[in-house]
C-alpha cells in the first residue's frame, strides 16, 4: 500500500479535473490526479468527440466573462499541447420568436459587446440551407462560437500536467476522504492512503459520493447523442454549417458540423429527464430519445436523416436551477468542488480548471462565483 503526500489531490480526471491538474501543476504544485476509469472512457459526461462552445449565452449573461476566458484558454492550451482543441465555426441559436432563447442570447451579446446578428427565417435558410425550420423561427448568429474537441482536451490537459510533474493515476477511484487536524486532507483508494494540503473534487456524475451535501441537490439523467448518415455532406461541413441549438415543439436539440466522423452529430432533447444511476454500467442510449432525435432530423434537417452510424449514451448531472455548483465543501475550506453540470459545462472546463486552482491556492477567484454557490440551493 502506498502512502504519499501531495500539495493537491484532484479526484476525477475528466473535463474539469484534467484542467485543474494542469493549472495546479503549471503553478509548480505537486499534484495527484485520481481517475475512476481510464482516460477517454465513455462512462461519464465528456465522451463523443466534441462539445459546443457558445459565447452568446441564453442561460445567463453572468456566464459570458467565464466563457470568454475559457475560449482564450482553449486556444492557448491547444497550442501548448500541439493539438487543435478549439474549432471556431460560428454558433446559431434557433427558436420561435418570443420563446425566450434568442432574446436571452441577444441580451448576453448586448451586455458584453459580443458581435452578433439576429437572422430571420429567410436569412437562416439562405446561409444554412440544411435547416428546414417552421415559419417564425429566428436565429442569433455569433461568429466566435464553435466546438471544443472534448476527448482531446482531456488528453491535452493531462499531458501538459504530466509534463510539469503531475502524478495521474487511472483506474484508482477515491473511496473516501477526511479533513486532518493540520488543515489538510487524507484520501483513501484501494491502492493506498494519500495526504495533501488541498482536495479538488471533480467527480462528475459521482460527485455526491464525495460531497454528500450535494446529494439532495443534484440528479443524474441519461442523454443520447448520435451520428447519422447525410445524403448531402457538403451542407454540413465546417465552413458551411455552424454549431447550433434548436428549440422546436419537440424540445431542444443541438448539433455540429461534420468532425472526425462521416455522420452528422445531433443530441437531445436537452431537457429529457430520464433518471439513471452512474453506477449502472449500461450506457445504452434511451430508445425514446433516439426516436426523438430521428424525428427532429426528419422534420428539420432532412438531408441528415439517414441511418444512425453511431449512438451513445452519456450522463448529465442536473442542478435544480440548471446553474453550476462551484464551492468549498461545507466546513472544510481546504476541499473545493465543481459540478459544472446540467448539460452545458464542457465549454467552461479550461476556465473552471483555472478557477479551481485559484480557489485551492488563494481561496479566491477573479470571477463572481456567487451564482454558483451551494448556499443558493439551500431552500
Ligand atoms: C451528451 C452530452 C452532450 C453535452 N453537450 C455539451 C455541449 O455541447 N457543450 C457544453 O459545454 N457541455 C455539454 N455537455 C456537458 C458537459 O459535457 C459536462 O458538463 C462536462 O463534461 C462535465 O465534466 P466533468 O468533469 O464534471 O465530468 P466528467 O468529464 O464525466 O469527469 C468526471 C470524472 O470523474 C471520474 N470519477 C468519478 N468518481 C470518481 C472517484 N470516486 N474517484 C476518481 N474519479 C472519479 C469519472 O470517471 C470521470 O472521468 C454535454 C453533456 C452530455 C452528457
Task: From the alpha carbons, calculate the radius of gyration and give it in angstroms.
Answer: 20 Å
- The CATH homologous superfamily of the largest domain is termed FAD/NAD(P)-binding domain
Q: Supply the CATH architecture of the largest domain.
A: 3-Layer(bba) Sandwich
- Number of separate domains: 2
Name the shape in a single word: globular
CATH topology of the largest domain: FAD/NAD(P)-binding domain
H/E element order: EHEEHEEHEHEEHEEEEHEEEEEHEEEH
Query: What percent of residues adopt helix (DSSP H or I)?
Result: 25-40%
- Report the sheet with the most strands, covering strand number, pairing sense and barrel closure: 9 strands, mixed
Name the structural class.
alpha+beta
CATH class of the largest domain: Alpha Beta
For the terminal residues, how far apart are their CA atoms? 43 Å
Number of strands: 20
Unreliable stretches: none
Q: Count the helices. How many?
A: 8
Average of per-residue pLDDT values: 96
Structure ligands: flavin-adenine dinucleotide
Beta-strand residue percentage: 25-35%
Amino acid at each position: 500500500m502506498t502512502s504519499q503526500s501531495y500539495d493537491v489531490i484532484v479526484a476525477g480526471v475528466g473535463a474539469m479535473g484534467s484542467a485543474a491538474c494542469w493549472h495546479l501543476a503549471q503553478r509548480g504544485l505537486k499534484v495527484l490526479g485520481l481517475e475512476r476509469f481510464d482516460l477517454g472512457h465513455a462512462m461519464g459526461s465528456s465522451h463523443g468527440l466534441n462539445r459546443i462552445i457558445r459565447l452568446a449565452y441564453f442561460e445567463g449573461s453572468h456566464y459570458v466573462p467565464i466563457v470568454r476566458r475559457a475560449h482564450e484558454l482553449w486556444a492557448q492550451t491547444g497550442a501548448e499541447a500541439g493539438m487543435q482543441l478549439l474549432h471556431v465555426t460560428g454558433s446559431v441559436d434557433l427558436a420561435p420568436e418570443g420563446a425566450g432563447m434568442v432574446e436571452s442570447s441577444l441580451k448576453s451579446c448586448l451586455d458584453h459587446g459580443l458581435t452578433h446578428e439576429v437572422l430571420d427565417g429567410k436569412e437562416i435558410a439562405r446561409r444554412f440551407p440544411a435547416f428546414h425550420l417552421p415559419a417564425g423561427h429566428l436565429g442569433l448568429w455569433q461568429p466566435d462560437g464553435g466546438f471544443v474537441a472534448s476527448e482531446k482536451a482531456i488528453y491535452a490537459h493531462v499531458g501538459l500536467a504530466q509534463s510539469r510533474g503531475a502524478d495521474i493515476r487511472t483506474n484508482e477511484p477515491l473511496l473516501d476522504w477526511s479533513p486532518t487536524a493540520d488543515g489538510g486532507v487524507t484520501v483513501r483508494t484501494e491502492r493506498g492512503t494519500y495526504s495533501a494540503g488541498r482536495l479538488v473534487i471533480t467527480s462528475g456524475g459521482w460527485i455526491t459520493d464525495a460531497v454528500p451535501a450535494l446529494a439532495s441537490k443534484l440528479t443524474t439523467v441519461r442523454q443520447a447523442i448520435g451520428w447519422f448518415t447525410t445524403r448531402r455532406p457538403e451542407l454540413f461541413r465546417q465552413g458551411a454549417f455552424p454549431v447550433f441549438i434548436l428549440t422546436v415543439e419537440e424540445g431542444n436539440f443541438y448539433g455540429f458540423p461534420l468532425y472526425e466522423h462521416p455522420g452528422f452529430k445531433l443530441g437531445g432533447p436537452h431537457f429529457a429527464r430520464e433518471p439513471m444511476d452512474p453506477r449502472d454500467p449500461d450506457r445504452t442510449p434511451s430508445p425514446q430519445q433516439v426516436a426523438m432525435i430521428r424525428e427532429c432530423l426528419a422534420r428539420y434537417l432532412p438531408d441528415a436523416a439517414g441511418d444512425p452510424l453511431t449512438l451513445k449514451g452519456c450522463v448529465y448531472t442536473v442542478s435544480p436551477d440548471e446553474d453550476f455548483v462551484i464551492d468549498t465543501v461545507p466546513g472544510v475550506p481546504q476541499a473545493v468542488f465543481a459540478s459544472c453540470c446540467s448539460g452545458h459545462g464542457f465549454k467552461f472546463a479550461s476556465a473552471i480548471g483555472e478557477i479551481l486552482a485559484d480557489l485551492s491556492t488563494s481561496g479566491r477567484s477573479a470571477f463572481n462565483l456567487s451564482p454558483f454557490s451551494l448556499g443558493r440551493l439551500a431552500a
